[in-house]
Amino acid sequence: MSSASATIMEELAEALTYCHDKKVIHRDIKPENLLLGLMGEVKTADFGWSVHALSLRRQTTCGTLDYLSPEIVEGRTYDKKVNVWCIRVLCYELLVGKPPFERTSQSDTQRRILKVDVTFSPSMPVGAQDLVSKLLRYQPSEPVSLAQILEHPWVKAHS
């Protein structure tokens, strides 16, 4: 599963870099919105929540609860980094089998997102834990960028 997850991270980071260069924020990256091509390549789908934003600054609350960034949960202005947050959550879910903040109630899930309350399964590879721990940070200025995801040793070794 590590190699498939690393490949998805790499291809999704490349796709979102392209979107960001075109001033597009997807805002709803999750497994259901990814398609696999004939050769296993990742294709981003469902741009229903996406926005073409020249300033790349938004305040609309949208997306899927388990994948919402702290900025969206708090109703703050956000930018393209919400897509990077979604990749973080996706990476965790691909490796563990469920989103990191998932709870039965919406308020509990939101509370865990705001605390960035993440626990790692012992089965998660150490390199993947390193990437996810660097990705899941409260402050939007702290997380790893899309380019850094592409250069992360775990992604490079397993993609």
TrEMBL record:
Keywords linked to the UniProt accession: ATP-binding, Cell cycle, Cell division, Kinase, Mitosis, Nucleotide-binding, Serine/threonine-protein kinase, Transferase
Domain Protein kinase: 1-155
Any one GO molecular-function label of the UniProt entry: protein serine/threonine kinase activity
Class of this enzyme: transferase
Principal localisation: cytoplasm
GO cellular component: spindle
Reaction(s) this enzyme catalyzes, per UniProt: L-seryl-[protein] + ATP = O-phospho-L-seryl-[protein] + ADP + H(+); L-threonyl-[protein] + ATP = O-phospho-L-threonyl-[protein] + ADP + H(+)
SUPFAM superfamilies: Protein kinase-like (PK-like)
PANTHER family: SERINE/THREONINE-PROTEIN KINASE IAL-RELATED
Protein name (record): non-specific serine/threonine protein kinase
Organism, as annotated: Marmota monax
